Amino acid sequence: MKKKIIAALLVATMAMSMTACGKSGADNAAGSADSDVAYIKDKGNLIVGITDFAPMDYKDDNGNWIGFDADMATKVAESLGVSVEFVEIDWDNKILELENKSIDVVWNGMTLTNEVTSAMECSKPYLNNAQVVVVPAADADKYQTKDDVASLSFAVESGSAGEAAAQENGFDFTSLTSQADAVMEVSAGTSGACIIDLLMAGAMVGEGTSYADLTHTVELTTEEYGIGCRKGSDLAAFIDDQLKSLYADGTMQDIAKTYGVQDALVKQ
C-alpha cells in the first residue's frame, strides 16, 4: 500500500512539473509575440511610415528615399538584420497605420506633441525644430511678428504641428495633404502664407532652393522631433539604444551634416 501511495505522489509531482514547464513556455511565447523587435526580425523588414518631407525623407533623382530620417532608419534596420521599406502615409492616419501594422514606425520629422506621446511609444528627442511662417520674400519686411501675419490666409499640413499652431493662434487656414503642398500654395499666391517645420523651410525656401522667391520669418513654436512606435512597443527603446551608439561613433553627426541639420541635433 505504501508503495502505491509513493508511486501516486511521484506521478502527481511529475504532472505538476510538466504543467509548470508548459506554463513557462507559454509565457515565453507570449512575451516573444508581444515583442515588436522579434516580430520585425521574424518578418525580415522594417516598414517606415513617411511623407515627402525634405530634408527628412525625400526621393533622389533615381527615385530612392533619402534624407536624414531615411538614412538613420536604414542604419537601424541594418542593426536589426532586416531590410528597410519606406511607405508614404496620410499623416492624419499615422496612429491607425501603426496599430494596423501597415507600418512598424513613424520616422518623419514628427513633433513630440501630447497627442503623439499619448498614442505612441516614442523615442527620445533627436532633433530640435520650430514651426515657422513662410511668406513671399518681397513681403518679408511686413511680416515679422505674430500680429503682422494674423490677417493672412494660411496653408498647413493636416494633422501637423503647423496646423496646431494655426489653431492656437486663431489664424484662418486651409489644411492640405502635405507641407510641400502648403508651400506650393504660397508660391502660387493661393494662400498668403504657410506654416511648416523650420528644418523643411531651410531646405525648401530661400536662395538656392526651388522656391527662391519665398522666405520664412516668424517662429511660432519651438519643439522636438521623435520617432513613433506602437504603444507599449519595445522597438522605441531599441531605437534609442541604436541612436546612442550611432551618436557615440559619429555616424549620426556625419549624416546630419549631409542634410544640413547638424545644428539641430540633440545629443544622445
Report what the structure shows.
The chain has 268 residues and is an alpha/beta fold. 43% of the residues lie in helices and 25% in strands. The protein has helices at residues 2-33, 36-43, 68-80, 94-99, 114-119, 146-149, 161-168, 179-188, 198-204, 235-248, 251-258, and strands at residues 45-50, 58-59, 65-66, 83-88, 105-111, 121-122, 127-136, 153-157, 172-176, 193-197, 214-229. Strands 1, 4, 5, 6, 7, 8, 9, 10 and 11 form a nine-stranded mixed beta sheet that branches. Strands 2-3 form a two-stranded antiparallel ribbon. The N and C termini lie far apart (71 Å). Residues 1-32 have low confidence and may be disordered.
Largest sheet: 9 strands, mixed
Helices and strands, in N-to-C order? HHEEEHEHEHEEHEHEHEHEHH
Q: Distance between the terminal alpha carbons, to the nearest Å?
A: 71 Å
Radius of gyration: 25 Å
- How many H/I helices? 11
Number of E strands: 11
| Structural class determined from secondary elements | alpha/beta
In what range is the share of β-strand residues?
A: 15-25%
Short characterization:
This protein is an alpha/beta fold and 268 residues long. It has eleven helices and eleven strands. The chain is globular and about 55 Å long.
